[in-house]
Specification:
CATH architecture of the largest domain: Alpha-Beta Barrel
CATH class of the largest domain: Alpha Beta
CATH superfamily of the largest domain: Enolase-like C-terminal domain
Bound molecules: magnesium ion
Distance between the termini: 17 Å
Number of strands: 15
Number of domains: 2
Strand content: 15-25%
Oligomer: single chain
């Protein structure tokens, strides 16, 4: 497949209420959306790095700029036999996984459409349904959080993830465990701590958490390995894993027992599949995370969440959780809260809602 045309959009899509984590509060999700075209067949990809260099060192503007100047010139008019060739083609461009991911997804989408197979089949997924958990950011108070958890588990979500940061820590867990002593819960620290916080981190063992996600710095595998030796609760790495090499090294030194795979953070589908396979080979748990994507991206995450080695409910936000208007069409709908079944049409079978795209796009580029 030869790439004949490329469209790229930078989008700032507002959300219904502020989303608060260890990185601060945000009122919108910032993304790039890419369309690749080959022989009249289009593939779409979305990558959602956020509006500032907080989760990673990238944002929507840096992705747009790097893609325009370096990624698109490599892809336009390029011939591909298989979408996994893109990773090697972009290898000389260091980092910039979020920018690469949008193009990688779009190429996998085109390829599976051309093969006449679903995206799920194209990536080798075997589980019938994706199991989905629910994630809560920092709330107004504990009562609001408990009311929210009540609602989500009563309608069927199998596990709850809680954002965890200074000011929203063990008192919050005490309040939740008092009501739900046995509920499957894990916390996500978003790199808010160091080994100086070891006493608090050790005290987390008493909460019987399924895992502690990214307690320490994004670039610190060594201290994560030290911490894992000092606590019983499994560590799950998110921000720290940007490549297959990161995953291999983290597993080798015992820095984690789970990996949260995010396709955008690792440069796309090909690398996600490699990390997933490595988890299976090494007995490391894995599940899928998201970055606040619209249904353009959550459809990708839901498909990846049906891969054979995924063994914990993934983070896929319900279509109506964040956005005032969803950028993806059709929106990804649950069969029932807590599970998704993928559609069995060729490719990802999702494209932008073009009216929503027109409303929230900040910048566009055509080649
Ligand atoms: Mg996380």
């Amino acid at each position: 497949m030869r790439i004949d045309k490329i469209e790229m959009y930078r989008v700032c899509n507002p959300i219904k209420r502020p989303y608060i984590t260890a990185f601060g509060s945000q009122n919108a999700f910032n993304s790039i959306v890419v369309k690749l075209e080959s022989d009249g067949i289009a593939g779409w990809g979305e990558s959602c790095p956020g509006g500032g260099p907080f989760f990673s060192c990238y944002n929507d503007k840096s992705c747009f700029s790097i893609a325009k100047d370096f990624i698109i010139p490599k892809i336009l008019h390029q011939e591909f036999e298989h979408p996994d060739e893109l990773t090697a083609l972009l290898e000389p461009l260091r980092g910039n996984e979020f920018a690469k991911a949008a193009f990688d997804v779009a190429l996998w989408d085109i390829w599976s459409r051309k093969q006449g197979i679903s995206f799920k089949k194209a990536i080798g997924s075997t589980q019938e349904k994706a199991s989905i958990g629910y994630c809560f950011g920092v709330m107004k108070d504990f009562d609001e959080l408990i009311t929210g958890i009540d609602k989500m588990i009563s309608i069927g979500y199998p596990r709850i993830k809680l954002k965890f940061c200074p000011g929203w820590e063990c008192d919050m867990l005490d309040a939740v465990r008092k009501v739900y002593p046995d509920l499957t819960i894990h916390i996500d620290c978003n790199s808010a701590y160091t080994l100086d916080d070891i006493d608090m981190l050790k005290s987390l063992d008493k909460y019987n958490l399924a895992m502690i996600e990214q307690p320490l710095m994004h670039n610190d595998l060594i201290d994560h390995a030290k911490l894992q030796k000092m606590i019983d609760t499994p560590i799950c790495l998110d921000e720290s894993i940007c490549s297959l090499q990161d995953a291999r090294q983290a597993i080798e030194i015992g820095a984690c027992k789970f990996i949260n795979i995010k396709y955008a953070r690792v440069g796309g589908i090909t690398n996600s599949l490699k990390i997933h396979d490595l988890c299976g080979q090494t007995g490391t748990g894995c599940w899928l995370g998201g970055m606040g994507e619209s249904s353009l991206g959550t459809t990708v995450v839901a498909n990846l969440a049906t891969l054979p080695n995924v063994n914990y409910p993934s983070d896929i936000s319900p279509a109506d959780k964040f956005y005032v208007e969803n950028l993806g069409n059709p929106v990804l709908l649950t069969d029932q809260p807590g599970t998704y079944t993928m559609r069995d049409k060729p490719g990802l079978d999702v494209e932008p809602d073009f009216a929503v795209l027109a409303k929230y796009k900040q910048e566009e580029f055509f080649a």
